[in-house]
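Protein modeling request. Please complete all fields; requests missing the sequence field cannot be processed.
Requester role: graduate student
Desired output: 3D structure, token encoding
Chains: 1
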Amino acid sequence: MPERLRLVDLVNARLERFLDERATQLTTIAGDLSVFTDASRDLLSGGKRFRALFCYWGWHAVAGTVRSDDLVAELDQHPDLSSVIDAAAALELFHAAALVHDDIMDNSDTRRGMPAAHRRFENDHVRREWVGNAATYGSSAALLLGDLLLGWSDELLDTGLARLTDTPSARAARGEFQTMRTEVTVGQYLDILEEVAWRDAPEADLLSRAHRVVTFKSAKYSIEAPLALGALMAGGSLEQVSALRAFGLPLGVAFQLRDDLLGVFGDPAVTGKPAGDDLREGKRTVIVALARAALPAGAVRLIDELLGDPNLTDDQIATLQATIRESGAVETTERIIERSVAEALAALSDAPLSRSARAELIGLSDLVTRRAH
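Delivered output (373 residues):
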């Protein structure tokens, strides 16, 4: 745990320095642009830094294998450590960009207990009594914030890769980041497509389509890609990178399924999001697909009628929650999470990775799948 906290501190410090640099750059253009770095700081002040941690331990899993006693402390002076911290921080900027864009598309009001970025800008418009439509201004400004964060993630990654001692490793890592960016973008599209076009798909395909969204919108970029990025920066072999992918993908699925459960049943005081937020947004998740497959026709019609109504009352949310629980979908989802974690852990056994990294990855697998927010 102390090592984990130390790494988080290093990433946080790097993000602070980077935003300080960008704040200086923006204020030379116009003082009005401080809103972007202020919003970025607030958004990045939260979060558990899972992607950054998986990136570091993916790197350590390879770099640590050349150390005789396999101690993390020996890597503190590694010439590539600062490059890895840059890459880990870049992943957090990328994640922040994805959250901003996701909240716009989902019309979410809150993020991490604070107003979502578009609501933040909308509230500024209302408070200052500016002309025009406040909601339009809020969405437009937040879209640009997300684009800035996306571009900044590229800049910070490139800064780190330019200092990497092995050029082929840097090239491979850049390719991984580019693939991740494409997969997340199309995964986000598949998510919003499923919300509106699910009736066009055969009933038997809805579960597999929901699982496809889990894989490409979240699972790969949350865990698999950060692990592979770190491992490639360390010059990982095909066997090493493949083992980390075999661990990361099922764990990423379990991670997102836990998130989906929290999106339906989570405590707002803990999650920072309204109760049943995914129900109001009409998310066609694995849980919903499992519930529909197990329920009688009348209950399925109830789900289809209410799901996606942004004006659902608390009573209607409670009805949907009870219907989903009665279907057995929660228990089935929990079993899928358990199986996915077991599959992930099996991929680590006998893998040619550092012992301390394997131990830390086992600990992180428990942390990311048993969380309450």
